[in-house]
Design brief:
The chain is α+β, with helices and mostly antiparallel strands. Among the domains are: 27 residues; 55 residues, SH3 type barrels, CATH 2.30.30. Helices cover 19% and strands 21% of the residues. It has two helices and seven strands. The strands form two sheets. It has a four-stranded antiparallel beta sheet, with no helix packed on it. Strands 1-2-3 form a three-stranded antiparallel beta sheet, with no helix packed on it. The chain is elongated, with a radius of gyration of 41 Å. The relative contact order is 0.07. The mean pLDDT is 81.
């Protein structure tokens, strides 16, 4: 059986890469002093503008104790005596406020031109639309146009827009 030694190349390269990564990891852990190796960690130098802040952070308050802190995992008032008699009050939720429904916006019929090919002028979403029977505008389909009204369909809903007389209030 004649075997080519090239099949050994990829496992050998993988072992070399694994060994290099392991040596680098162990070296880095040794420098930081991990595993009690006692490496010397270089202390960063503090800029003169921040030396006072660095000293203040390093100071310890000798009068600081944990007995006057409340347990963050319990709700309610804490009187600071750790005797367990503090009432637990669940948080209150604000009551929902009833909101009046907003009336649905309706297109406004501004003019009708009735002739052989009737058309209408409709104001909708701050725009004037000139429409004819069977036409579409925005989400509406124009079903019919007569002398006094325009019938529109939006989905399953049918709207009838009436022509206003000149003296009527809107």
């Amino acid at each position: 059986m004649n075997r080519d030694p090239s099949w050994l190349v990829s496992p050998i390269v993988a072992l070399i890469v694994l060994a290099v990564a392991g040596f680098q990891t162990m070296g880095a852990l040794g420098v930081t002093g991990a595993f009690g190796a006692g490496g010397n960690v270089p202390r960063p130098t503090v800029a003169p503008a921040y030396q006072a802040l660095d000293r203040a952070i390093d100071k310890r308050d000798p009068h600081f104790t944990l007995e006057h802190l409340r347990d963050p995992f319990t709700f309610g008032h804490y009187d600071g005596d750790n005797d367990g008699d503090d009432p637990i009050t669940p948080p209150t939720r604000p009551r929902p406020v009833a909101v009046a429904p907003v009336p649905e916006a309706r297109p406004l019929l501004t003019a009708i031109v009735s002739d052989n090919d009737p058309r209408a002028l409709i104001r909708w979403k701050d725009r004037e639309w000139t429409v004819r029977e069977g036409g579409l505008f925005d989400e509406f389909q124009v079903l019919s146009i007569t002398r006094d009204q325009v019938t529109l369909r939006r989905g399953d809903q049918t709207l009838v827009l009436q022509r206003k007389n000149p003296g009527d209030t809107p």
